[in-house]
Amino acid sequence: MGRWSLRFAGSAVAALLLLFMSQSIAQTSFEQEDLLIQTKSGKVHNFTVELALTAEQRSQGLMHRESMPKDHGMLFDFGETRPVSMWMRNTPLPLDMLFIQRDGTISHIHRKAVPFSEAIIDSRGPVHFVLELNGGRAAALGIEAGDRVMSKRIDSRD
Question: Where is the signal peptide (predicted)?
Fold first, then answer.
């Protein structure tokens, strides 16, 4: 095989690999459900959230998303209460990360996570869920640690 043939073959393999990777990202789908956040002052904020329930879904999260409606988010359910670490790799949206206890209480909020950052964002203790919202949304709505998150998934916990 000549040098040109090897280059072409290598380029074709690389193109197929990229196509496979992009299809696997596009193929991951998420169920949705309604979610409410009730602040300590009694205000209730409604969101539609995608559910990241499997390891594959949690791994993908909101990576590669260019935009998200202001009343949407993603709820990560880890299936157990444990310390959680997140990052923003391949995520172009700034996000607020709400770390949530099994009973729906927000224990910590990491505000405006930096897009594409590989810095570790720590839950600061064991949590069962993480809710990602558009960056700045929690502050705009007055959502704070101690507020309550409610949904079918969270309310169904013992």
Answer: 1-26
